[in-house]
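Onboarding guide, step 5: your first structure request.
Type a short instruction followed by the sequence, for example:

Predict the 3D structure of this protein.
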Amino acid sequence: MKTTFLLLITIATFAQIKAQEASEFGFDKGDFTISGTMNYSYQNSDQLRTDINGDIYRQDIKGHNFSLIPEIGYFVSNRIMTGIKIGFISSKAESHDIDEFEYTSKGKGYSAGLFGRYYFSPKKRVSLFMELDAGYRKIKSDFDRVSSIDDPTANSNTNENYNLTAAPGINIFINKNLSLTSRIGSIGYSYRKDSFDNSDGDIWINKREGIDASISLDNFFFGVLYRI
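The system replies with structure tokens like these:
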């Protein structure tokens, strides 16, 4: 993995050195940009589960996760861009255990944030940048479970997350307005609060905070950025 990562950095550096200084590429003060991320995943699986008595049960699980987070940016200079992001998040999962229970989970939420970027070579076709991001995310999930003796239970979970993150990235122009962009790892502070409550009126609150750092190809992917 380290070899692959170094190879990508070498290719990007070589491309930046050899890129032609054509006037149609790059950013200028007053430019607006539209970008963002959209993710969708689907799960359909069968599992075997063993309880505390050693009995084996077959369980099928179906579900999906979806998120859409558009971003709008504005260049206050040809090197510095500021922007906002507002997103929608949803998920649904259904689990059926033939001999015991049915389980359903539905979640919806949103995210919002402010970000700023500094481009080291904004007039080149390939440019590295540093991004600082401050964000908030809130997701509420409802859980329903019905057992074989028809004893339904309902629970809900509300997750709130605050984060302040710094991340390096790369921007590659395809033409004068369209470019590929990607963040490469990140380091930042996060605060998370989880609130649980059930049909009996019980409430639990869990809070945690920490500093996270990651440089991995697992979160290395390209998005699309369009200059207006």
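Each response can be followed by summary notes, for example: Residues 2-18 form the longest helix (17 residues).
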